[in-house]
Design goal:
Blueprint lengths: L3 E7 L3 H12 L4 E4 L13 E3 L3 H7 L10 E8 L4 E12 L2 H14 L3 E3 L4 E6 L4 E5 L2 E10 L6 H6 L5 H4 L4 E9 L6 E7 L2 E7 L5 E8 H7 L2 H7 L5 H9 L1 E2 L5 E6 L12 E3 L14 H20 L5 H27 L5 H11 L3 H10 L6
Length: 375
């Protein structure tokens, strides 16, 4: 790994793998650093907006052949209220276990060097390259993409001022199950409870993804996940029915701590670029963080290509990429963060659901603000 490559990407999730595929298909020597082995589960909702469908097809995935659930309705509930609305244009359901593995196979097939079971420890900028220190040795790259998701030890090293201890941000814990239960294939439901909310939607093979966020303090007060679900989540009758009647596919849930949604500064180096959640953690209520991850790769790669071809300096690439990020995602992030401050807080979310119920046009406007156009 001591050689110099064109591109190194830290994180083999949706943003990292899709960026790597674009780069390798264009002939650039590309390495992806991923700490796990495929396939594996991630704590993530598994609804993908239709805006990403064509892009995934261009990456080489045949989604139509997989007969995935098509999701066209939205439900939002609290322990005492419920709201339903059409979800236009909607999305589809597929597990990260399946999707990431498909992208990883596609990446290797087009020449990406996929370095799994490898951790990135640090970065150092040099005049002509970035030096990436990993658990497998040293790697040099002309540019580096940071696609390491919700939280990484690199955040501590590169952006300590953005961590919740310094920003006062609310910390969440993410908890996820796959379930077998009767659930409408065309519905995504967001169920609120005191201190958090959960999303439920269908995925492949007749299963359902149930993923919820809970404030860390609420989980600590309950004492355990089991107690939290029995004492707090079950106060919402929709969640109580789900938890009482669904068959859990795993013996224990997938979990992730240190989830927070404050804005994060961009890195100082002109050779290091952030994508997806690493660029500024995307609240689930932005509509679809997975589509935003795909789109960030779609935005960044042409700018990298322009640099490699001598048409843009790295400083220009950084400036244009950050401007494209703000233009593409600013409204979605602002709306998602505003909704995030309401969901899981029973008085505000009850008022919001009750207030929106008579105004379907306003509901559609919020949905539009949290979804993008096909790319």
């Amino acid at each position: 790994m001591a050689e110099t490559v064109d591109i190194a990407i830290i994180g083999g999730g949706l943003a990292g793998l899709s960026l790597a595929i674009l780069a390798a298909e264009a002939g650039y020597r590309t390495v992806v650093i991923e700490q796990k082995d495929y396939p594996f589960h991630r704590v993530c909702g598994e609804y993908i907006a239709m805006e990403s469908w064509d892009f995934l097809g261009r990456l080489g995935l045949d989604l139509a052949a997989q007969e995935l659930p098509r999701i066209t309705r939205l439900q939002v509930t609290t322990p005492t209220r419920s709201l339903q609305a059409p979800l236009k244009p909607g999305g589809f359901g597929i597990s990260r276990y399946a999707l990431d593995a498909q992208l990883a196979r596609r990446a290797e097939s087009v020449g990406v060097i996929l370095q799994t079971r490898t951790r990135a420890h640090g970065l150092k900028a040099h005049a002509e390259y970035m030096c990436l220190h990993t658990s497998q040795g040293e790697l040099r790259a002309r540019v580096v993409g940071g696609a390491f998701g919700k939280w990484s030890n690199l955040d501590t090293a590169l952006r300590p001022q953005s961590l919740p201890a310094h920003t006062g941000a609310v910390r969440y814990v993410g908890i996820k199950y796959h379930l077998k239960t009767r659930f409408p294939q065309d519905l995504i439901a967001l169920h609120n409870f005191a201190g958090g909310y959960g999303g439920i939607s269908a995925i492949e093979d007749g299963r359902v993804c149930f993923c919820y966020l809970v404030e860390q303090q609420a989980l600590q007060a309950a004492g355990s996940i089991e107690a939290l679900e029995a004492q707090v989540l079950s106060q919402n009758p929709y969640l109580r029915s789900l938890l009482n009647h669904a068959e859990r596919c795993w013996s224990a849930p997938q979990t992730i701590a240190q989830v927070y949604f404050s804005e994060r500064p961009w890195p100082g180096s002109s050779r290091f670029f952030l994508l997806g959640d690493a660029a500024g953690l995307i609240p689930p209520l932005c509509g679809n963080g997975m589509s935003m991850a795909f789109r960030s790769a779609h935005l960044l790669f042409p700018l990298w290509q322009a640099h490699f071809e001598g048409r843009l300096s790295l400083t220009q690439v950084q400036a244009q990429y950050q401007a494209c990020w703000r233009q593409s995602f600013g409204t979605r992030l602002d709306t998602g963060r505003a909704l995030q401050r309401t969901f899981g807080k029973l008085w505000p979310i009850n008022a919001l659901v009750q207030g929106l119920a008579p105004f379907p046009g306003l509901v559609q406007s919020l949905i539009t603000r949290t979804h993008g156009t096909p790319f």
